[in-house]
Amino acid sequence: PDLGGHYQFRVIVLGDAAVGKSSLLRCFAEGPAGGVATPCPTVGVDFYSCTIPLPPAGRAKLQLWDTAGQERFRSITRSFYRSAAGVLLVFDLTNRASFERVPEWHHEAAGDRPPAFVLVGHKCDLAAQRAVSAEEAGHLAASLGMVAFVETSARGNLNVELAFQTLAGGIQRALGRGGVTPHRGCGGIRLIPSRSHPRPPARGEPRQRCQC
Amino acid sequence: TSSASSLDTSAQFQENNGPTQSTRWDEQQKVFALEQVCGVFRVDLGQMRSLRLFFSDEACTCGQLVVASRESQYKIFHFHHGGLDKLSEVFQQWKYCTETHLKDQQLADEKTCMQFSIRRPKLPSSETHPEENTYKRLDVSAWLHHLNEAGQVEEEYKLQKAIFFGGIDISIRGEVWPFLLHYYSYESTSEEREALRLQKRKEYFEIQEKRLSMTPDEQKDFWRKVQFTVDKDVVRTDRSNQFFRGENNPNVETMRRILLNYAVYNPTIGYSQGMSDLVAPLLAEVLDESDTFWCFVGLMQNTIFISSPRDEDMEKQLMYLRELLRLMHPRFYQHLSSLGEDGLQMLFCHRWILLCFKREFPDAEALRMWEACWAHYQTDYFHLFICVAIVVIYGDDVIEQQLATDQMLLHFGNLAMHMNGELVLRKARSLLYQFHLLPRIPCSLHDLCKLCGTGMWDSGFIPAVECSGHHPECESCPYGGLAEVSSPKPGSEGKRGLKTRDVFAFRK
């Protein structure tokens, strides 16, 4: 536990087209209302930033990268996968094909120094159309060495925060094991010294703060 | 305290505020109470990164006040009915604003205080294309003026120029776009076009027939590769547009058919996400299904979707953009370089290029940009000049705050739909003009003026091409660029290449 600052993790959200990656992210970053409207298909990369508590005592700033699900212009974004500290690999519980592509996505993003993965079965509110069982997905997550499997729904705001929390916890444990190390400059994991964080009112550098 | 010389501004800040602090405190309590009652807002200037005013009208009274936090979150206040000028006066009189304005050379730590700037819709004349404002929007009567009795476009270059500067009136977009998108040729007569439409309609329905008569195996494959994603995407494309609004809107189904048929027509490309964004405005203006399809075919030929399945074309566009930035906005280029490979990939502008700014500006402005690009006036790469214009106008924060890759994404992402499209377009036109005046261009940008036909160098002046090196495949510059020992490019009248970098400076 580092009392002098907080961690910043680069997290990438991957998965087939239209499995609900953007909705999941918006629900998390902008609150439940963000997950209700159907967003336009993602083209290029979208970016969100969000700070979450990281038990026992700290917090982590997540730099969240939302990617386009379709296999286009991947070579450009691939280098960014590589530097991620964590990956939310999303599939649609009602779309079996998107589940079957999970190993491929995993292989694509794992590289030589695999980041922490959380497998997310999305759209769990559509129970009647479910095409993948929790057991099956749990097995897959375990066999690929992922941190966990979580079922979520942006529409119902179910487990969305849990998914991100779980991933952040996984990254933290990997840090503890020394499997990954924070970098200055290069994206994946950074330790941000507390003085550069603007929130606390009493900071050591009064010049930066307006006194009126 | 009138000497505004940099470094200790923030110290003055404190000094001056110190004695009045207690009175301020009382006032603050009153303000808080007032907030409760009337929803008055307040902004903690200590948490603010920048304060910018963007005027939207010529008189500079209306526009937006944009307050940016250090986290690149924006609070935007719209002044639709004037008053922003008064606010600007107040800000300008407030010396801390003016003193912190434009201090580029401060250290990174000290930049966290505020930045203040005012953007006027009129660029200074030195930054404006000299032919700006000489063209009105192309309306019906102006359009008819371009046609002869047989309905042929008399001088396509004049038409393209008029559209480049003035845009097309909404009422005739559906009629003129098919020319810009190479569905109709400029030389065609009205009669020939009617015949073409009939023939193309037949062809379109043959394509559709082909799609509907697939074998079950083919169908399964098509569903997996194309239809599944198309079905998901059409229902979430432009649904706020009146034309596609509402449940079971038949226009959504038409858009779906066009995309599916396109995938049959051009199986190598099939369907790529983003294509629905491009076809939707076409359908909303052209209206007829078959005509829209063929316009879309023309549009796709001019986008980088066509280069499927590899990313070469995107890489090429990014390379040109990098080179343009190096030439026209070196400070920004330097910043990108300082971020290394990550920065030079310019992830923040991939969507700009892929969707031709559709998600960055409201429809009215984005479609003006489409038309300006489709006019192919002096260049086939006008969209890259628009990219540079956005960076020039809205990229100050990026340089001043030395924003990292992801912060840049956030910065430009948050600006989407909040930028002044008219201003950006004018700036882009002026950048093209400045490019046009360069005495020499690096060979890496040779293609920017290659395919554009007559007009790029219409004064008879042709710039020298200077080799900027890096042709690993060839021994000499494949574009005939001048280096140490070289032959002049044909037509350049034997000007010898100067080696210094400053030859790229714009001519005054």
From TrEMBL, chain A:
Family matches, as Pfam families: Ras
Entry's Gene Ontology molecular function annotations: GTP binding; GTPase activity
Taxonomic lineage: Eukaryota, Metazoa, Chordata, Craniata, Vertebrata
Protein name: RAB42 protein
Spans through the membrane: none
Keywords: GTP-binding, Nucleotide-binding
Family matches, as PROSITE patterns: RAB (PS51419), RAS (PS51421), RHO (PS51420)
Family: Belongs to the small GTPase superfamily. Rab family.
Annotated segments matching region Disordered: 185-212
Domain of life: Eukaryota
Sequence ranges of Basic and acidic residues compositional bias: 202-212
Organism: Phaetusa simplex (large-billed tern)
NCBIfam families assigned: small_GTP (TIGR00231)
SUPFAM superfamilies: P-loop containing nucleoside triphosphate hydrolases
TrEMBL record, chain B:
Region (Disordered): 1-24
Domain Rab-GAP TBC: 167-377
InterPro entries reported in the protein's UniProt record: Rab-GAP-TBC_dom (IPR000195), Rab-GAP_TBC_sf (IPR035969)
Highest taxon of the lineage: Eukaryota
Polar residues biased stretches: 1-23
GO molecular function, one term: GTPase activator activity
Keyword Electron transport: no
GO cellular component, one term: early endosome
Keywords, ordered alphabetically: GTPase activation
PANTHER family: TBC1 DOMAIN FAMILY MEMBER 16, TBC1 DOMAIN FAMILY MEMBER GTPASE-ACTIVATING PROTEIN
Protein name, per record: TBC16 protein
Upper taxonomic lineage: Eukaryota, Metazoa, Chordata, Craniata, Vertebrata
Name of the gene encoding the protein in the UniProt record: Tbc1d16
